[in-house]
Structures are given as structure tokens and as C-alpha cells.
Amino acid sequence: MVAPALAVNGSTKIMGVIGDPIAQVMTPTTINPIFAARGANIVCVPLHIDARELDTAWAGLKALRNLIGFGITLPHKQAALALCDSLDPLAKRVGAVNLVRREADGTFRGYQFDGKGFVRGLKAQGHTLSGSHCLMVGAGGAAIAIAFALAEEGAASLTIANRTRTKAEELADAVNRAMGRSFARAGDPRPTPGEIIINATSLGLSASDPLPIDASLVDETMLVAEVIAKPEVTPLLQAAHARGARVHSGIHMIRGQVDLIAAHIAEVQTDS
Q1: Quick one: which pathway (predicted)?
Q2: How far is the C-alpha of 149 from the C-alpha of 119, rounded, in Å?
């Protein structure tokens, strides 16, 4: 059943999604029908904000009294951390924010749903994480959240490959300390049989991007997963499928968290 379209009026609350670029975001497409089905007078729209203008834009966002919150995508997830008035404990531990909500007192509080969304998306598609061995390319905002979520879900190990190796080492150390076990390590982007391969970088947003891993190393024993939702089938997933691997689109991460985000945003909706 298709949810009825929401009529936008003077009492409509706005949820933004900020990023640069922004054309790839799928959150408005997936969350607006949820708001409509809930009868919440909220509409989600994309907001293109350059990284160099985030501080200026943040002040403007706070001045919009009918802005109830906003999602955050690349490249703002870590920079937004210092701009929030307060942080949910998970966002503080992860060190990255993917949702900011205007609280009842008007302050901006940062939250983190990327890791939960990624895990929920995998499980919804029938994939098992407990006891799995994973290779993740990337160590930025979404990657940090996913690393913690994989550990909490009971994955056996995680190799983190990143262009700047020190960032991978720092992330591995942080996860190991938090989990109290030797779970993550920095390494090279070389998949081995049976692994879950995760692209947590922006490589794949453009068709001209290089692949984050050497596709010739992929085989039918692997699951290759994306955080990129648009295109739903990235060049990496195309190459992995051609090699016989199972593939998992980033759209499942969006769907895995969008209902959580919708409920969280709608909690503070007020009529004015």
C-alpha cells in the first residue's frame, strides 16, 4: 500500500540532509513516505553544503525554527561533532554524527545510526555477521560506526584498509579498547576467501572512480557490501557479481536505519 502524499503547509516541519555532493542521497525518498504513513507533518529535503561553509551554514540551520533536524552525509559526519550542543553516547564513542535533532530546549544533539543501519540491512537480507571475518575499506564517519557495530554484532575479525594507514590503525585501536578484545587491525585492501568485503568510502559515487579493491581477487565465497546507495549497483558490485560473489547494495543500509531516524525525529515534533 502506498502512503498518501503529505500536504506541505505553514505548520510543516523540515528535516534536512546535508552533504557535498548531495545528489546521491536516498534518505528523502525513503523517509518521506514513512512520515506520511505516521501522519507526521514533516518533510525531508536535501541541502547542499560545502565543507568550507559548514560553520556558516550551521548557524543558519539553527536559525530555521521549523527545522526539526537533519541527516548528515559525506564529508560532514566528523566535522559536525564539534558543532553539536550535545552528543548521544554512541555518537560520542564513534566520533561521528549522522543525525542532528533539535531537542525540546532548542539545542542541537548529535546521534549516530550508520552502524545500526548497516547491520540491520545485512540481517534483513539474510546475511549472518556473528563469527564472520570482514575487510572494510575506509576509516571515515560511516566506517567508524560500522566497525563498532560489527564488533557488537559478534563478527570474529575486521581488517581496516585506508589510504592513510594511521587512520586505520587509530580506528582499530579504538574499537579494540572499547570491545575489550583483539578484533580489528589495520591492513591492506586484499580480500581473502569467505570474507565480507565492505566499501565504506565514497569510491563508486562516480562511474569514473577507481575500484576500492582489486576485483580480480574477489571470488564466489565472498559477500561484497556497499555503503553507497546511489547508484544502487556500483561498479564494485557489478565487478563482484561478475566474479560470482554475493552483493549487497548500500540502499539496504539506508532502509535499515530510516525507520529508526523517522521515529527519532518525529518524537519532538510540535504543532505551531
Answers
A1: Metabolic intermediate biosynthesis; chorismate biosynthesis; chorismate from D-erythrose 4-phosphate and phosphoenolpyruvate: step 4/7
A2: 7
Give the pTM. Answer: 0.89
**Residue 272 within a domain:** no
Query: Is 230 noted as a catalytic residue in this protein?
Result: no
* Options 77, 116, 167, 230, the catalytic residue: 77
Residue 169 has pLDDT above 90, yes or no: yes
- The dihedral sign for the CA sequence 30, 33, 36, 38: negative
How many Å apart are CA 45 and CA 18, to the nearest integer?
Answer: 9
- Give the amino acid at 95: G
In this prediction, residues 177-195 reach a mean pLDDT of 96
Split into its structural domains, the chain has a count of 2
**What is the pLDDT averaged over residues 59-85?**
95
| Bridge partners, 18 (sequence order) | 47, 72
CB atoms within 10 A of CB 176: 16
